[in-house]
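W.,

You were right to be curious about this one. When I first looked at the sequence I had no strong expectations either way, so I just let the prediction run and decided to look at it fresh. Below is the sequence, 378 residues in total, followed by the output.
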Amino acid sequence: MIDFLFFGKAKEERKQLHAIAHFLAKRVHYGRDVLPEKLLERLAQARELCAEALRITTPAPRRTEILLQLEKSYADLLRTERHHGRKENAEVALVAIVLALGVRAYILQPFKIPTHSMRPTLLGILNQPESENPPSWPIRIFHLVVEGKSYHQAIAPKDGQIVSVREGRLLGWVPWTTTEIVSDHWKQTLISSLPEAREGGLRVRSGDRVKAGDVLANFSSATGDHLFVNKFIYHFRKPTRAETFVFTTERIDGIESGLRLRGIEGSQYYIKRCVALGGDTLQVQPPELWINGSPATDPACQLVASKRDGYPGYTFGQTYLTNPNDTYRVPGRDYWAMGDNSPNSYDSRGWGAVPAANLVGRGAVVYWPFTKRWGWIH
């Protein structure tokens, strides 16, 4: 029994000494260039004692003596361990944040598709009415995690008159926009903005009378595709025909003047397909896009023109390419951007070419939701 206790004590002492030696080594390694010379000398002395204590030939009494000496004579060096650990963790966290910001600024940046101008290649936020009741909660959670799809339903609990339909905050303070349907006797809340709820089929308005059991809203919301944009690639090459690219609206007056009319200041990010380069001459011969006198040969453009698998074909524009005889020559360093959902895309046909200075990066990969569009963007 005594031998067992003795062995356990020796094992615990060696464990303590290993921890002290490791900590002292880190202090020397991280502070060699900034610590005072006297402090470095004391650290070296403490490390020598640890090395002696950890030798196999060192007797157990001597090991215990060294451990006591370290705790007595070098306690001030060891007391900083907790503070040093916090500092080290903070440094690691800071480096991680800097690296993440660097990756986001110069290599990969996440974006969310808000509209359907690139449908069906990429989908934006979609709110649509549902005829059936929402599924069970396990299925709803699965749809939300995998497909980014959520369900919203509001049923009048009793007769009443609608007092207001307004936007609010979740629980009154959480910064999550909700739609509140308030009657003279009750209130229903949808975790959705009012425009999304209206798009999904919400029709009740202030003053409407409803009966108990009336379905006020029943719709689903699918989040827009979330993707990474490769911001690094355009440092080494220019965009090529038919690739999906992201650009800012800065200095594109046809876009920013419209934004200002809606009370939106500053530029935004747009994602389209770069269908033509500087020097190309364009025409639209529905459902085809013609480049330099013949139909576009790039597979992505041919797919849009095919009018298959949800692709609608190319259509005339609002300002440019307004008829079969209308042509446009892209300026030398600019690019022509068009959405794959041509009839419902506000693109270069409305506001002209994209300046090279506006380029952000190439659409690289859809990372969520996990639908058939997940993966590399073509």
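Here's what jumped out at me. The chain has three domains: 2-84, 126-222, 226-376. And, maybe more interesting for your project: The chain has ten helices and 18 strands.

Coffee later to discuss?

I.
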